[in-house]
Predict the 3D structure of the following.
Amino acid sequence: MRILLCNSQIPFVRGGAELLVESLADELRRRGHAVDTVFIPFSLSSRQALLQSALAWRLVDVQAAADAADLVIATRFPSYLVRHPHKVVWLIHQLRQVYDMYGTRYSDFDASHPPDRQALEMVRAMDLRTLSEARRLFAISANTAQRLRRFNGLEAEVLYPPPKLAAALRPLDAGEDDEGFLFSAGRLDTPKRFDLLLEALAGAPEARAVVAGTGPQADRLVRRAAELGVADRVRFAGWVDDDELVRLYRRCRAVVYVPYDEDYGYVTVEAMRCAKPVITSHDAGGVLEFVDDGVNGFVCEPSGRALSRACAAVSADAELARRLGEAGRRAVAHVTWERVIGRLLGAGGGDRVDGPDRATAEAR
């Protein structure tokens, strides 16, 4: 098949969505398909820029040649505005600032400000119409699917994406020991809440940690570590290459990952593939689809004090961490590319999405 993958991207920002699209392209090519990727820059600099970025996908013609693509797979907002008779959506997330984050500190949309209200209503209307056009809707997690059901009245099948480094992520070999440190990885921005790990270290003096990643909160986190008196027990590794990332996962004692209402969270699956327990919080979203408290990790209140107890427990007990980690490895064994690709490729010829708001979508 000839397949186009569609993804929007803020220039110079790289995260899980980019990894997902790259991994999907590699896996499709490995199976003999012709694959190309369409990126259009996305801007949140103003409400006008946001809407223009979205409408660009509606205007682009991916059918310039009548037989250019057999299937189009769109991912996150606003790439699914693209037009194609065989459009499938594997939803990473919508514009969360106008949905589940609306009214929280993670959204800058203000209902009392007319331009914000107008932009919010336009985005929701565009979503309803263009998602309803898809032959099939899939979501990368039950959390993402639940948001789609709650806000748009549309149903999506859950397809968990395996991590890009799945083949390299494995437990320590027999006779190897972990190095006792806690590990966390990801983009260093506010919703990922790396500050909670630092606060946990302050309450667990025997624990030490390594953090891999870059982002706008990097300098603030370094200052916060100094304020909490834990600077000598946390190493900010910055960007690390694939080999080093795998080494850190395999050599750590446990992984601490406490984002706010995460869409999915590659970190969880990556940790569990390496048989590492995951310490998280009860509001971490998609992470909770894999972490079972006391079975393969710990689910805590989102506070430094609560997390410190879990961090102290695994730091002091290698056998506990090993036992939890083995259970985690079994919990992600079903996350494979075979299922994902089979479902995506089989969906391009079906009927369009149905939902309670389908008629409304078609009328707009």
